[in-house]
Structures are given as C-alpha cells and as structure tokens.
Design a protein that fits this description.
The structure holds three protein chains of three kinds. Chain A is about 75% helix and about 0% strand. By secondary structure, chain A is mainly alpha-helical. Chain A has one domain: Orthogonal Bundle (ABC transporter involved in vitamin B12 uptake, BtuC). A two-stranded antiparallel ribbon of chain A has the order 1-2. In chain A, helix 1 crosses helix 10. The longest helix of chain A has about 40 residues. Chain B has two domains: about 100 residues, no CATH class; about 260 residues, ABC transporter involved in vitamin B12 uptake, BtuC, CATH 1.10.3470. In chain B, about 80% of the residues lie in helices and about 0% in strands. In chain B, helix 3 runs antiparallel to helix 15 and helix 9 packs across helix 10. The radius of gyration of chain B is 23 Å and the shape is globular. In chain B, about 55% of the residues are buried. Chain C is α/β, with parallel strands linked by helices. Chain C folds into two domains: about 240 residues, P-loop containing nucleotide triphosphate hydrolases (Rossmann fold); about 220 residues, Rossmann fold, CATH 3.40.50.300. Chain C is built from 17 helices and 20 strands. In chain C, helix 3 crosses helix 4. The chains are: A mainly alpha, B mainly alpha, C alpha/beta. At the A-B interface, helix 4, helix 10 and helix 12 of A face helix 8, helix 13 and helix 15 of B.
Chain lengths: ~325, ~375, ~500
Amino acid sequence: MIFGLVDIVSIAFWATLLAAGVRLAVSVGMAALGEMINERAGVLNLGLEGVMLIAGFAGFAASFESGSPWLGLGVGFIIGGLVGALFAFLVVILRADQVVTGLALTLFGIAFTAFLNREIYGGGSTPPRAPKPGVWEIPILKEIPIVGEGLFSQSHVVYLAILITVLLIVYLRRSYWTIVLDAVGEEPRAADAAGHSVVAVRFVATVVGSSLAGLAGALLIVGQLGFFNTDIIAGRGFIAVAIVIFGRWRPGGVALGALLFGVLDALQFRFQTLDTAIPFEFFIALPFAVTLIAVAFGAKNAREPSALAVPFFRETE
Amino acid sequence: MIVDDSNVARDPEPPVAGFIRRLFHRGMESGIAIVVGSVVAGLLVGAILILWAGENPLNVYRVIFTESLLKGSGWRGTLLQATPLGIIGLGLAFSFRAGVWNIGAEGQLIVGTVAAIAIVGAISDLPGYIVIPVGMLTAMVGGAAWGAISAYLHVKFEVNAVIATLLMVFIAIPLLNWAVRVPFKDPASFLPQSRTVGNGALPEIFNTNVHIGVLAFFVLVPVAAWVMNYSRFGYLVRGHGANRYAVYANESRPGRLPFVLLALSGSLAGAAGFIQLAGVQMRVGSGTAAGFGFTAIIVAILGRNRPIGVFFAAIGLSAMLVGAEAAQRLLGLPVALTQSIQPIIVMFVVAGEALRARALKREGEREAAIVASQLRSEVQT
Amino acid sequence: MPLNDADTPAITVAGVSRHFGLIQALTDVSLECHYGEILAVLGENGAGKTTLMRILAGLDRASSGQLFKRSEPYSPHSPRDAVNAGVTLVQQHFALVPTMTAAENILLFRSQRRLRTTRDKAASDLEALSTRLGFKIDVDKPVGEMSVGARQRLELLRALDSDPDVLLLDEPTAVLTDAESDSLLEIVRSLAHDDNRSIVFITHRLREVVKVADRVVVLRNGKVVVPAAPVDQRTAAELASEMVGSEVHDAIRTPQIIGKPRLIVDSLTTSEVGPISLTVHEGEVLGIAGVEGNGQTELERVLIGARHCTGGRVRFGEIDLADIPPRRRIASNIAYIPSDRERTALVGPMRCDENLLLGRTTRLARRHEKAKTLMEQWSVLGLPESVANTLSGGNAQKLVAARELESHPELILAFQPTRGLDPGATAFLRQVLLDMTAFGSAVLWVSADLDELLAVTDRIVVMYSGSIAGEFKQPFDRGAVGLAMAGIA
C-alpha cells in the first residue's frame, strides 16, 4: 500500500518534471542547434545571447501589436537572421575578432532591448502581455506514463521546436551541404581548393545559425512567457554555447544536452518551492554548475572544428 | 612609400610640425586613431537613437559632458566609477593581451567582495589600518580563487576560457544573494544586506569626498604599464598572446601563464570590489556588482589592452555612465541608451583593427623586402 | 613512346610572370605539354614551381602572360573553372579533410550541382576507379586515419574523379618512401601513356625525372633555365647542376673523431611510439631518417619535455630531458630548432629583437644592440625592429639559428632544419650546423630528405612506424637506408 503510494507520487513527479524539462529545453536547444551550425563552419558566435534578446524583443513587439504569436515567431526568426548577417559581415568578411565582436553583440543586445522596452513599453515591473500559442493535447498518446505528459501535452511551440530539431538531424545527416559545412570548418583550404567559397559558406551558416537563435529567443519570449523584461534571456545564450560543446557538435548530442539542461532547470524551480534545509540559491546555481562540469568532462574528448574562430585567408592574399 | 619617407626626413621642418607629424604617425601606428574614429562613429549611431527617442543629440551629449566632467559632483562620480572599472580593466588587459579570455570578472568581483565582508564584518571594530589591509587582501584572495577555479577547468580540462569564466558568474550571483540573505545579513535590517564595513571604510583624500582607492588606481596604471612593456612577465604575456606555442616551447610549460593570468585578473577584480565596498557602498547588497565586471571588458578592449589606454577608457566610459545617469534624471533619457552605444564603439574598434592588421601586414612585408634587398646589396659591396 | 608531337599541345604556358609585391616569383615562363606525355618541371625549393602550378589550376593568377588549353585561351579564375576545362591539380599539401571519409572527400570536390551524388555512389565510383588503377582504398575510413601513402593515392583519385585530360602533380612523392613512390609513378606513367592524358609533374627529385618523365623543363629563381628537352638526352649530373646553379656549394660531411656520449635515449616509449634507443656523441651528427609521420614529431615532443613518456629515459648528463621545463633545457645549453617553424620557433607578430630573447636571460633593455650584432653576424637580412613574420622563410630560420646556436650549445636538436628553404638558406643552415660540431656540439638531425642526411651526417638511424628500423654508418648504402624507411629491413 505504502509502496504503491510512493510509486504513484514519484511517477507523477517525474512526469511533471519531464514535461517542464522539455518546455525549458526548447529555447536553449534551438539556440544551441543554431550555434552548432555556425561553429561547424568555423564561426564562433558569442553574441548568441544578444541575438536571442534582440530577435525575441522584435518578436514580442510583433506579437503584441498584431495579436498573433505566430507572426512574432516569424519576426524573431527573420530579425535573428538580419543580426546574424551584421555579425557575419564583421567577422567573416572584415575578419574581426570573433570573441570580442560576439561579446560586444551580447552587451549591445542587453542594453539595446532594455532601451527599446523602456521607450516603447515603459519598462515597468508589470510588463504588458502578448497572447501565447495554444496547447495541443494529443489524445491517447498523452496518457502514456511518464513521457506522455512531457511529449504530447505541450504548447504548439514545443512541437514546432521538436519538428525543427528532427528535420535538422535528418537534413544534416543526408545533405551535400553538411559535407561543405564541415570542410569549411575543418580544413577551409580544402574546401577552397574544391571550388567552394569559404566566405560564402561561413556567411550563410552564420545567418542560418543566428536565425535559429532568433527563433529561440522568440520561442521563449513570444511562445512561452508572453512578456519582455530587461535581460530576460539571463545567460541561456551562453548555456547554449556550452551545450554545443557538450553535444560534441552533433545535433542529437546537442538536443540531448538541451534536454538535460531543461530537466535541471525544472528541478531547480521545483526545489525552490520546497522547504528544504538547502538554501534555494543553491538550486539556482545548479544548472550552471552541472553544465560546467559536464562540459569539463566532455571537453577533452570532444574535438572542436579545427578552424573554429580562425579567419580564412587565401595564400595569395 | 618608404623611400619617399627618407627624402622627407631630410627636408628642413619646423619643430612643431615635426612633433605633430610624429604624433600623428605614432597615433596611426598604435591604433589610437581607430579608437578615436570608433568613438566618433559610435556617438553618431547613438545620435540616431537619441533622435528616435525624441531628444536633441547635441543637447544630450552636452549634458553628458558637462554633468560628468565639468561639474564638481560629476568629476567625483566619474573618478569613483572609473576606479573599479579601471582596476578590473588593468587585470583584463593583461589577460586579453595574452589571449586568455576572462569574461568572468563580475563573478570574481562578487566572490572577492563576499569574502571581504565575511572577514571585515567580524572585525569592523578594530582600527582601520588593520581592517582595510585585511579586507583588501581577503577580497583579492577571494577573487583570485574564483578565477583559479575557472583556470583549473580551462587548463586541466581544456574547457574554453570564455565558458569556464562566464558560467562561474552565474554561480557567483546566487552565492552573493545567499550570503546577504543568510550568513552575513545585518540583523538590524529588513533588506537582504550585510553589516557596514565600520572602521574598514576607506579614508578620503583631504576633504575632497574622493576616497584613497582612486589614488591606488592612479598609482597602479604606470606600474602596470611598466610591467607590460618592460618586464619579463609583460614580455611573456605579449608573446603568449601573439603565439602561445612559441612560449610553451621556449619559456614555460603550457597552461601556467593562463592560470597565473586568470588568478591575477581575478584578484584585481576582487580588489576593485573591496574598493567599491569600503569606499562607496559601505555594505554588500544583492546589487553590489552592478555590472562593473562586464563594463570593464569594454574598458580593456577600448584601451586596446594597454594600461595607459585602459586608464583613458575607464575615465571615458565612467564619464559616459555618470553623464547618462544625469541625462536620465534631467531629460528622461534611459541609461540603457548610453550602455548600448558602448558595445557599438567596440564593434567599430574590432572592425577597424581587422582592416588595419591587413594593411600593416602588407606594408610590413613590403618594408621587409626593401630592407632585405638593401642589406643584400650592402653585403655584396 | 607515343609522343603526339604533331597534335596541338594540351596545355601551353606563354610568357607567364607573377610577382608578389616586390618579390618576383615567375619571370616570362613558357612551356607546353602534349597529350600522352609526362612533362617534368624540375627545380629547387623557391624556384617558382608551385606558383606555376597554382596559376594553371586556377588557385592564383598570372601578373602577365597567357595560358592556352588546346590552343584556346585559358584563364581559370577558380579551381572550378580549371576542373571544367579538364585541368586538375594534386597538391603538395593534401587538400583533404581529415575528419571525413574518402568518399565524402571525393564528394566535396564534386562542387558543381550536376555532379553531386549520394555518398554511396561516390564510394562505389571511388572503388571502381581505384580497382582500375590497381590498388585498394578504404572508402569509409576517415582520411586522418589513413597512412600518408594511402592519402597520396586518394589525392590522385580525387584529381582523376572529374576525368581531366590535363593532370598537374605538385611533388606527389614528397612524403612517400622509395617503394611507395615507385608504385605511384607507375600509375602516373600509365595515366599518360595508356589513357593519353597530359601530365605536368613537378619535382626536385632527379631520380623520378629520369624514371618517369618524357621531357623536362628546369626552373631556377622563377626563370626557365633549360627549355623542354627529351629526358633521355640529358644525364642526371647535367640536370643537377642546371637545377642548383653554380652559386651554391653544398656542405659535405667528412667524418669526425667522435667523443663521449652526450645524449642517451634509452628504450623510450610513449603511448604512440617506441621503443627508441639512440646515442649522440660529442662532435657527432646523428641523422634520423624516415618518412614524415613515423614518430619523429612524437620524439621531438618528448625530447623537449612537451610530452611524458611511458617508459625509458632521455639522459643528457645528469638531467632527464623528458622531465624538464623549457627554460631549464635552455639553461643546460641545449639548442632546439623546431620542425613546426611557424608555430613554435618564433612569435610572428613580435619584433626580431624580442624574438631573440625567447627563452634567453638577456635583459629586455639590451635587446636592440644585442640583436643588431647577432643579426649582422648571422647575416639575417632584416632589422632588429622588423616584425618577425615579415621575414622570408630563410631569414626567419637564420634568426632561429642565431638565437639557438649563438652560445655554442652542447647539444643541438634540429628537426627538419632546412625543409622548404631556398637553396641559399639551406646551404647556410647546413654549414652552420656542421660548424658547430667543431666546438664539440652533438647534433641530432631529423630530416625527411634522405639526400641531405647522406651528405651531412656521421651516422643515420631510420625511424619506421614509431621505432628504430635500422642504423647505418658511413659510407652509407642508399638502397639499404631506403628499404629500412619502407619498413623492409
């Protein structure tokens, strides 16, 4: 009897935890997939956080003004690409330092969205709310124990994110473009000799990666929260960069890393409300600490693209 | 080009013109021109944003300038903010110059400050000449230790330095919140904040309302400049930044210098935290760090990782922030606007540097080829 | 020999010049190559051979002059243009992505949309092609895990994938053993004579020219010194003097009286190499021969203390070399000339005088005057305040030699000290290293160039797949050393 009760409690606990984990993994996972694409072409974008903020804010404004969260997601995707094009112009075409440019982009995103939010929406403590996409409960499937709630009773944006992730995994495994992408990130001279433009491939990869990061910002702000606040991404962009390392530059690994982070994040929220002897701040720090440790143990065996953050010069230049 | 130059040098030239020409040449060579140009470009972009926000850019920039640099209170505010920014910036300049990306100064400052208040809070009744050095030392050790954790992950586990230092910030922030909520909370206060530093407060410089920490910053700048340019350590730092493998093959073992630099810049971040605590804030609260650690990254980059440059960048950025606060007070223009101009300036700087590097390389190769052919003909004759 | 002299030439180079800034790489070069013919372009390092190939393959453009393909004007702007015109290049440095499989690498080079296929199709094409040429290749193995010989064959297959009628080979045998290069040359010969392709073959190895080429052009300092002539009308000795010119006299070693042991490597092992045992004596030059990638880099890293060994010892007097930091190594008066020059020898963006301080105890304040005398002494063509990466390869290596050898070191660890240098600098470096033995220095000289080692060393040990495959004393038996390098001892 007692064991039965404990079982039910723990199954319910794990089911809700997984559901929340999937929800929390969506945004960071999408950003990490985007970053993975530009890193595989040899471009390190530490401006991810800034892209997520700028695109997320733009998406929120579009959603708020039009009343359509789907428009907001689309705007986030496009603005992400545009900001990515600016970043790519600086680091791929002018060959500016990728680390500094990326950090500047992040700092710019934080301050600039705070400024816009204040100018347009007052920047108060009770921000205006935009409508969110609905929830789609898939009958029967959602009754599956533990995973049912997590996978089949979620907001539309979660399905969108899962769909994009699956498409990316399949596409990257099959397509010709993957070969070119990896060649540009590993051995740009070989790609150049094969007649592919290293600069063009890097530019496109950065724009695509940044579009996905923009979508990631919009997924969180438009799709899940429905409001904007200063610095609302709160380090998730950098977590995404870490997840790429953890996932060893493979879409499956990255998705898994994002899910792990999401579950940790969910666990953190859960523990915060429990009255334990451990201070709740510990749980706030936990996802970051675990990510750091996971990266530390993964980093030695994970081989980053050889030309990551190395600008390409033709020998005759 | 080079051949022409030697002809010009033989022409009689008034000393003033020669001085200006050399100054200009030196400016171009050291890249100061890029920074100045970038600041101008950044302010122009800012002007567009200000116009959009419905203000007159000239008026706003005038307010920012006069309120931060001309008025007495503004001057003091500028110096007080420039001090922590500059001290952290000096540490980061060494780190960045060596190519070690310490992005976690914010966390190192937080941990240094928390460590300092833990000790100072307990001994705040002792005389200042004991409390201040003890507090300073604790803050530096705390900051260095936090930097050393990142360094350990970076050196031993090969975690990217940016990730290793940055994620530690997100661990330091909850640590700070807990520290002022539970163990070091002032029992007399309702807010989550620590006791005051008591006798640990930094003395003023002759009734100027400016604490001696500012003096420490002014002294530190030439010392750092000397170390960077004329000491063996500075030589290694510069060499490591330019080609770390050559340093590892001929000087010290891999990882040793990054470790030292992360600990060093961490200790300076801790020192800045203590100066801010004992000179301005008097207590630790959850808003203690206030982004100094991140703004200092901009300071180091605008100072082009050179101590003298860091000095001017710290004063300049601090003035911008103080002026921006005045502009918010007087004109209702958000501080965030000024904060978004700063990274724009940084982007202009890195873009300019990239273009200049290419031009310099080309010119350097030309010059070297000419020198080689001259020397060859000398050898033959 | 099916020479189709009556036909129009497959490829014609007419008065091509190329300069980089003030450096004249090619001056008024003209040559032509017919179908079914192998034309060798012979020249020393820095003679302009590679620049010529890069222009033909669309990787670089001529400053002046013209190219013709079957007497049509031909001016490729990119490698893709060249491939479309039926011209492909096999590069000296592998243009392959090490993390990808052979099939994926082939696919990478099918850059035109109409040529793109699945990985499986590329793999089967590759297998079919390699079978036809008479060798096997593992199409699903990452290229990084293949032997250098296999990589060179893959590189050839890659170039043949687009079925070109003109094939350019840039030192294709540089990293191969004698046996491996013989079998490659056999394939090259059949590609020309049986498939009727036109092959331009760049090399500085006379042996290969004599063996495989139909005609030969000799380049020196970017100029054609001997226009194309049938190979069988020239002797190897003639070609050698034409290639090198009269200005360079190479150092030839006369055996020295050998002193006490200085460096003793005693059954050294790491996770990848070993066991290695060797001894270098006072005043002796010990050569380590071997094709690159047979453990020389690993040995280098152990000797300079950058890698721990799992067994054995490296003794220099009382010191265990494998265990000391760089500064102690330098303080013990051991010189080190690294194989990876750009990465470990110099700090490129720093000034020459600062580079001369690296690892030394000279005070910073004295660097300029010190550098001035040193650079004059070692005839480094540059100023103390010049930035090191603006120096030419030869001058940069002289700067390294000045820093390392100035103190008359007791032990000199020289790894590929002359690789890629122009003839003048090569001769200079060889001479100063040999001169050092007169002061009692012990020299460990690692080189992939067997001819160099035969000329300058007292003894040679051969490394093959991580361990010692043979030891040879003067007078050397070239054939025996070559067999040991191929692992047939």
